[in-house]
Amino acid sequence: MIRTIEERLAAVEAQLAIRQLASSYARAVDSRDIQLLGELFAPQTRFGEHGTGAAGARAFYGPVLARFYRSFHQVVGHVITDLGSETARGTVYCRAEHEDGDQWIVNLMVYFDRYVAIEGRWLFLGRRPRFLFVGDAREAPRSVDFNKWPGREEDFACELPQSDASWNSYWNEREAERAQVTTLP
């Protein structure tokens, strides 16, 4: 498929805008800019009982962000897939750190995103975080669930990497090697 220079340029511009969206989310969360945070979501994005769109986002994130004093979200990798003229998907790797009382908790996570362009502006249609590790940064994850945020174990179900089909396929074919590098399931 031969694409025109205009089509290629539009794809590059879309990717840059989508990458900026993920970074803007991190900045809005960490600066507690609830107004900006709401503006990053499409009008049809659902936030359960909190509503939809910008108002739903603000109603959802306001109380969530009040649960810890400081946070730092570091976007460390972004893969954009299924890029069309008005829709796309992506995965965003993130290291998020949270001050929770006297605790300093690290979340290693991947956001699974859906994006939509509305009037030329890329917005989140949906964000689903999945966690790799939650706990004290000074401790190595040594349990199956990797969730060590005292009092918030129910809030963060650590699913990755074991929930990826490719992960299981890879290690199922290499049982002997796996046994040499870990004693965990």
TrEMBL record:
It comes from Novosphingobium taihuense. This is SnoaL-like domain-containing protein. Transmembrane segments: none annotated. Pfam families: SnoaL_4. It comes from the Bacteria. Residues 11-127 form the SnoaL-like domain. InterPro entries: NTF2-like_dom_sf, SnoaL-like.
